[in-house]
Amino acid sequence: MKEFKSLADFSAFTALALPVALLGEMRHGLARSAQLIEKTAKREIGEYQPAAGAFPAWAELAESTKADRVAKGFSEDEPLLRTGDLRSSIKHEVSEFEAVIGSESDIAAYQEFGTDKIPPRPFMGPALFNNSERIAKILGAAVAIGVSGGQRAAASLGYDQDIS
Questions:
Q1: Coil, strand or helix: which one is 130?
Q2: Which uninterrupted H or E stretch holds 20?
């Protein structure tokens, strides 16, 4: 724990060091959260997913889709996975106060939300939903560490857990 020799030292800390530490830790927490969501979404590609929160379970691939996949040299039943391009398109970016995780691929949008011919097979929304408790711990610990001036949090908060 940080100790201060005077009120002036404490005042200087809260005016200068504290905001810098808090912003740095929040950005670090956002980056870890975005990376976690990205990795989870990528893992979902190729495997049928159950319902998660408001997101529906993935529908079975149509027989015509399975036949098309096989005719083109792909496995019959790995939903959303053919060449790996969709999975590779999932990225994240982090700025000071926000994280953006997603894909610029039109195919990603068609699959996430569905179309008149394709049932929705969401992978981004469930990746966030399924990690929401862990993200809350990561961000909560980031605030605690930032407010304490950079003192590391207890491991039980989950801030430094591996995100693989």
A1: helix
A2: helix 18-44
Q: Is the pLDDT of residue 158 over 60?
A: no
Radius of gyration for the chain, computed over Cα atoms and rounded to the nearest angstrom? 21
CA distance 79 to 90: 16
pLDDT in the model for residue 161: 56
Q: Tell me which amino acid residue 44 is.
A: E
Q: Is the pLDDT of residue 157 over 60?
A: no
91 SS3 class: strand
- Residue spans of the domains in the chain: they are 19-157
DSSP state of 123: S
Q: Tell me the CA distances in angstroms from 122 to 23, 50, 56, 125, 145, one per residue in order.
A: 32, 10, 8, 6, 34
Distance from C-alpha of 139 to C-alpha of 12, rounded to nearest angstrom: 25
Q: Residue 18 carries which DSSP code?
A: H
Instruction: Give every CB contact of residue 11 below 8 A, 6+ residues apart in sequence.
Output: none
φ, ψ of residue 93 in degrees (nearest 5): -135, 145
